[in-house]
């Protein structure tokens, strides 16, 4: 049947790139699936600060290089993820020699040398970077998350990161990436942050919408509103970490060995709606990346409930297309 022979990336080749997050294991275990259905990759963890720069004078690029090589050898695009984040960043970054808190000057120097080294190394491999990840605080909190970057450097740490990245690779597309991006309050904060970066002349080219969604949230109208609002800034948008959990965020059930038929039906419906919406914004939306390639491996197996299986992607645990895949590619 033609739908089953359809490649996911092929179905959207005139619209946007189709990506998957990979790690050093999954480029091996999911190799055939990746080559058949995806034309873009993101390193799930291997290019994060703690992975590539565990100590001040130590860079460890072996796994990141393997992913860069895999993408190059197979003619796939590669997104860089991520340079400045409050998570998965080693403690040494924020400490001075005496074990106290590093001051602004030291932190900026470390940020610059990290960005410079990593971005230059992958200049030929990576076409766009998530320069700053998740800097905005969630609903009800301040504008910016009180991370060690913010507390140590001050409000301008975000603009500085973009400047350093641009100096290291003037050709790279530079993105601000965040989650809960469709929540009206957070959406407005993200919009405000990026608008002010643009007004300061910071070299920023796009906004990444992580898209960690579920069967109920966010509502389609809120997704549309977020896309419209971000696009009004004149930037490119990318869906950077998409998955559709079968559990709502506060559902901590652990008793399911397989998704229910109702979950699968809703997931198909949701995925269909999402991709119909995405296609309306082709041109503005330049890439849709899933946070994983198939349900045999997903970070949601450990988050937010440790060890609980989830089934959030378009391919099942045997890496076969799910109903949601048919819904998505059958649109053509
Ligand atoms: C996650 C990875 O998938 C996990 O393997 C890791 O343990 C924690 O980080 N937002 C992001 C991603 O920007 O980097 C996160 O990735 C998921 C949430």
UniProtKB/TrEMBL annotation:
<comment type="pathway">
    <text>Glycan degradation; xylan degradation.</text>
</comment>
<comment type="similarity">
    <text>Belongs to the glycosyl hydrolase 10 (cellulase F) family.</text>
</comment>
<dbReference type="InterPro" id="IPR017853">
    <property type="entry name" value="GH"/>
</dbReference>
<dbReference type="Pfam" id="PF00331">
    <property type="entry name" value="Glyco_hydro_10"/>
</dbReference>
<keyword id="KW-0624">Polysaccharide degradation</keyword>
<feature type="domain" description="GH10">
    <location>
        <begin position="2"/>
        <end position="331"/>
    </location>
</feature>
<keyword id="KW-0119">Carbohydrate metabolism</keyword>
<protein>
    <recommendedName>
        <fullName>Beta-xylanase</fullName>
        <ecNumber>3.2.1.8</ecNumber>
    </recommendedName>
</protein>
<keyword id="KW-0326">Glycosidase</keyword>
<dbReference type="InterPro" id="IPR001000">
    <property type="entry name" value="GH10_dom"/>
</dbReference>
<keyword id="KW-0378">Hydrolase</keyword>
<keyword id="KW-0858">Xylan degradation</keyword>
<dbReference type="InterPro" id="IPR044846">
    <property type="entry name" value="GH10"/>
</dbReference>
């Amino acid at each position: 049947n033609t739908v089953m022979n359809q490649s996911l990336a092929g179905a959207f080749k005139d619209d946007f790139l189709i990506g998957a997050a990979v790690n050093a294991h999954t480029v091996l275990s999911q190799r055939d699936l990746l080559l058949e259905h995806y034309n873009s990759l993101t390193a799930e963890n291997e290019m994060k600060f703690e992975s590539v720069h565990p100590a001040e004078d130590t860079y460890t690029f072996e796994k990141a290089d393997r992913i860069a090589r895999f993408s190059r050898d197979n003619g796939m695009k590669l997104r860089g993820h991520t340079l400045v984040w409050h998570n998965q960043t080693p403690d040494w970054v924020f400490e001075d020699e005496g074990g106290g808190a590093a001051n602004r000057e030291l932190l900026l120097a470390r940020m610059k040398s990290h960005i410079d080294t990593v971005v230059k190394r992958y200049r030929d491999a990576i076409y766009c970077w998530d320069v700053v990840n998740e800097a905005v605080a969630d609903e009800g909190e301040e504008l910016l998350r009180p991370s060690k970057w913010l507390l140590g450097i001050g409000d301008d740490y975000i603009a500085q990161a973009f400047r350093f990245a641009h100096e290291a690779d003037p050709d790279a597309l530079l993105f601000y990436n965040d989650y809960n991006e469709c929540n009206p309050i957070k959406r407005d904060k993200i919009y405000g942050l990026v608008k002010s970066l643009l007004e300061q002349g910071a070299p920023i080219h796009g906004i990444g919408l992580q898209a960690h969604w579920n069967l109920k949230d966010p509502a389609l109208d809120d997704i549309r509103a977020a896309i419209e609002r971000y696009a009004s800034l004149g930037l490119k948008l990318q869906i950077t970490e998409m998955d559709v959990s079968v559990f709502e965020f506060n559902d901590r059930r652990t008793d399911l060995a397989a998704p229910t038929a109702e979950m699968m039906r809703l997931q198909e419906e949701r995925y269909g709606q999402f991709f119909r919406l995405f296609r309306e914004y082709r041109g503005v939306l330049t890439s849709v990346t899933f946070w994983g390639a198939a349900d045999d491996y997903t970070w949601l197996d450990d988050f937010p409930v440790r060890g609980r299986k989830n089934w959030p992607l378009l391919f099942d645990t045997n890496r076969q297309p799910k109903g949601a895949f048919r819904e998505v590619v059958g649109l053509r």
